[in-house]
UniProtKB/TrEMBL annotation:
PANTHER family xrefs: CELL DIVISION PROTEIN FTSA, CELL DIVISION PROTEIN FTSA-RELATED
Biological function: Cell division protein that is involved in the assembly of the Z ring. May serve as a membrane anchor for the Z ring.
Subunit structure: Self-interacts. Interacts with FtsZ.
Domain of life: Bacteria
Name used for this protein in its record: Cell division protein FtsA
Membrane topology: Peripheral membrane protein
Coiled-coil annotated residue ranges, if any: none
Taxonomic source organism: Aquilutibacter rugosus
SHS2 domain: residues covered: 10-197
Biological processes per GO annotation: cell division
Similarity comment: family membership: Belongs to the FtsA/MreB family.
Taxonomic placement: Bacteria, Pseudomonadati, Pseudomonadota, Gammaproteobacteria, Lysobacterales
């Protein structure tokens, strides 16, 4: 948490493949978070959500932070930072703990989550989230969302565990710290985006959230109000840009501009007589090509992405529970016709999700590009408000730190 005079601020740092976004929100318990500062900079040093160049990433973060500080009129000292990439893995786990004095307190909630985190993982992995799905009291009361204050003798939790490669997490933390900042928490991008774009009804009915960025397409399935499955796919908007550059034989930067200005996700949306001007490489003269040809190439790549999303949904085992359909967000979701294409392919209702649940800066609140950054603020405000950080980076089973943490928790709970 950072400070501006006597006011508490939350800072979200979305470190993406194409862009770094630093978003500052003013935090007051019981009130919507207000966006007061924004900084963005081209991301250099990231590939498919993973850092490949430390110094370039540090420079991008520094520029975004500097701009955010100037616009918010504050000094940023710590951030909630995003993490993504195909190294992200998920599983569902159970934990059980006895209830002291027959009333569930925050101590029991922490202990049962610690028990759920005691799962065997590789020494090269870290648990970044242990998110409660529901609780059970004494085998008689199931599907409890918040057991705090309830009476019983045994508490059980079903939790969603998200792990990340320890090296990937350490590199993000190192980049942030080289900018003179602390990391309050690392958050899986799609977990943050869900906070910003999903409604309570969608979570309860069952919804598929697809966060399409430049380097990764992150997926989360929500069932009965809680996350049940998550995944990061190493394909997204950057591949569309590469396809355009290859097909039109134009530089990548020009291909990105063409994608933003002229591309659409359905070939039927482009008229046969429409043409666009394409810059050539070197000193060659620009050329004109049919917009329909561009649309066909873009549609083919989006179809591939949605086929992968559909396969992942089926693999999750929760396909029949997604009654509210799909919510698309992220920069690649801004493509014209993308929601209609997804609806046609997956045979479910689809909408483009824009950030909600915050106030200020209409540019941010109306743009799916900022879903993760806004979600980081919302998660940060909630965690600071409760005094807990349930998604804090922690080692899981299979290493000494995890054992020591669990022993410490056991002693605190019993003595």
């Amino acid at each position: 948490m950072s400070f501006k005079g006597d006011k508490s601020l939350i800072v979200g740092l979305d470190i993406g493949t194409s862009k770094v976004v630093a978003l500052v929100g003013e935090y007051a318990p019981g009130q919507p978070i207000e966006l007061i500062g924004l900084g963005t900079h081209d991301s250099r040093g990231m590939r498919r959500g993973v850092i490949v160049d430390i110094e370039s990433t540090v420079q991008s973060i520094q520029e975004a932070i500097k701009e955010a500080e100037a616009s918010a009129g504050c000094e940023i000292t710590s951030v909630y930072a995003s993490i993504s990439g195909s190294h992200i893995q998920c599983r569902n786990s159970q934990g059980i703990t006895p209830i002291h004095e027959q009333e569930v307190t925050h101590r029991e909630l922490q202990r049962v989550i610690d028990a759920a985190k005691a799962v065997p993982i590789g020494t090269d992995l870290k648990i970044i989230h242990a998110i409660p799905r529901d609780y059970t009291l004494d085998d008689s009361q199931e599907g409890i969302r918040n057991p705090l204050g309830m009476t019983g003798v045994r508490l059980e939790v079903n939790a969603h565990i998200v792990t990340a490669a320890a090296s990937a997490a350490a590199n993000i933390t190192r980049c942030v710290e080289k900018c003179g900042l602390n990391v309050d928490e690392l958050v899986f991008s799609v977990v943050a985006s869900a906070e910003a774009v999903l409604t309570r009804d969608e979570r309860d009915l069952g919804v598929l959230l697809v966060d399409m960025g430049a380097g990764t397409t992150d997926i989360a399935v929500f069932v009965n109000g809680a996350i049940a499955y998550s995944k990061s796919l190493p394909i997204a908007g950057e591949k569309v840009t590469e396809d355009i550059a290859h097909m039109l034989r134009t530089p990548t930067a020009e291909a990105e501009q063409i994608k933003v200005r002229y591309a659409c996700a359905q070939a039927s949306m482009a008229k046969a007589e429409e043409t666009i001007q394409v810059p050539s490489v070197g000193d060659r003269q620009p050329r004109r090509v049919q917009r329909a040809a561009l649309a066909q190439a873009v549609q083919a790549r989006y179809e591939e992405i949605f086929e992968m999303v559909q396969a992942e949904l089926r693999r999750s085992g929760f396909e029949q529970h997604v009654r509210a359909g799909m919510v698309l967000t992220g920069g690649a979701a801004r493509m014209e016709g993308v929601a209609d294409l997804a609806e046609e392919m997956l045979q479910m209702p689809v909408r483009v999700g824009i950030p909600q649940h915050a106030t200020g800066n209409p540019v941010v609140m109306g743009n799916p590009v900022y879903a993760t950054a806004v979600g980081l603020l919302l998660l940060g405000a909630r965690n600071e408000g409760t005094g807990q950080r349930t998604g804090r980076v922690a080692r899981g089973g299979g290493n000494g730190d995890g054992v020591l943490d669990r022993l410490k928790s056991w002693f605190q709970g019993n003595f």
